[in-house]
Write a structure and sequence with these properties.
single chain; eight-stranded antiparallel beta barrel; 8 strands; elongated
């Protein structure tokens, strides 16, 4: 699993290098993401947007037109949840809690609702949406005597669903605020459904519902590259 993730990170860097080699035709953006994360699953609160852990990472965009960009990101965070903070009486009585460090690679398409031509001198503002595919590495958890234990490193594909609004803060800088939910094809981030066959007797919760998590925060990107023609490929 670690080898697969290392390959994913190398692919992420290779894509950026290839895109940067085409700066004569497009505008590029590179910058940082800073915000918070929260988990939605079988442990803890069921609130969809309630950041309780720090999330940070790198982001790159290759602007193909004033309306859309190819977007790549690498984000790290900790997902944590505590049944004692839940409004569900059964969870409060159970009293489980966990923390799980995650690293996510994401690639996809960002669509602007309004034209966002970065070479025009007037300030620009637009809402946007982003989706694509994610690959997340985390510890596969299970519970022993009420305490979370790690089985091994696991990885899961997911679908990001992000909405945000961005603004040209200065001629070369873009500031954005966004909230993004991740639906993962995994159900053991919180330890409720271990994938190890020897541990499946420890399952609890809704084993037919996969785990979600969200990132909420700010992105600040720096733009560079020659003026694009925005013509058809």
């Amino acid at each position: 699993m670690q080898a697969i993730f290392q390959s994913m990170k190398k692919l992420f860097l290779l894509i950026i290098v290839l895109c940067l080699s085409k700066t004569n035709a497009q505008i590029n953006e590179i910058g940082v993401f800073l915000g918070g994360s929260n988990f939605i699953g079988d442990v803890g609160k069921t609130t969809y947007i309630s950041p309780n852990e720090l999330a940070f990472g790198l982001i790159y965009k290759w602007n193909r037109s004033p309306r859309h960009s190819y977007r790549f990101s690498l984000i790290q965070s900790t997902l944590s949840a505590n049944d004692n903070e839940s409004d569900v009486p059964g969870r409060k009585e159970r009293g489980l809690a966990f923390e799980n460090n995650i690293t996510e690679v994401s690639a996809g398409l960002e669509f602007n609702f309004f034209d966002f031509n970065l070479h025009e001198l007037t300030p620009k503002l637009t809402p946007y949406v982003y989706t694509g595919v994610t690959y997340t590495v985390f510890d596969g958890l299970f519970y022993a005597n009420g305490l979370p234990k790690s089985d091994s490193k696991h990885g899961a594909v997911g679908i990001p669903m992000t909405v945000g609004i961005k603004y040209t803060l200065m001629p070369k800088f873009i500031l954005a605020v966004e909230v993004g939910a991740r639906y993962t094809f995994a159900d053991d981030i919180d330890g409720s459904n271990p994938t190890n066959e020897n541990l499946q007797s420890l399952q609890f919760g809704n084993i037919n519902s996969n785990d979600w998590y969200t990132f909420s925060g700010l992105t600040l990107t720096y733009t560079f590259g020659d003026k694009p023609c925005y013509c058809a490929d």
